[in-house]
Amino acid sequence: MDILQKIDQYRALLDRKDELVDRTKEVNLAIQTCRDELAGMMIEAETPKVSREGYGYSVTQKVKYTKAAGVDAELMEALRENGLGDIIRETVNAQTLQGAMSNLAEENDGELPEEFRTLIRVYEFYDVSRRKERAK
Q1: Digits of tens for pLDDT over the chain (136 positions)?
Q2: 103: how many CB neighbours lie within 10 A of its CB?
Q3: Helix, strand, or coil here: 52?
């Protein structure tokens, strides 16, 4: 196999991945819609449980909570004030860490400073980028 054939194979795999991501989003939306419709039908029929072909289906009310955007400091303060400070976890965004470590290594002749060498795993690989070319 030559390089151009390998590029075609690589491109096809990337295209397939994109298709699968899009298809997964579509299927997840369809599942959510169908779930909501099924739950409504079961509630309307006052049938909280149904068995079908070896599977049991039951409707239950669930509540999910997520953090509102742009209120990190206020949320942390409210959690602490309400005795929930122990659920707060200090984290570092992966992309932010990548950028910071790249900058540190660049300033240090391509190596991380000694204090980070046991704390940060370094994984090196060759990447092949793909960009759509403009028509000439």
Answers
A1: 799 999 999 999 999 999 999 999 999 999 999 999 999 999 999 999 998 898 999 999 988 888 899 999 999 999 999 999 999 998 989 999 999 999 999 999 999 999 998 899 998 888 877 777 887 7
A2: 10
A3: strand
Contact 57, 49 (CB under 8 A): yes
Extended strands (E) in the chain = 49-52, 55-58
User: How many CA within 13 A on the CB side of residue 63?
Assistant: 1
Distances from the Cα of 9 to the Cαs of 2, 15, 23, 80, 129, in angstroms? Answer: 11, 10, 21, 53, 14
The label of the residue with tokens 């096809």 reads 12
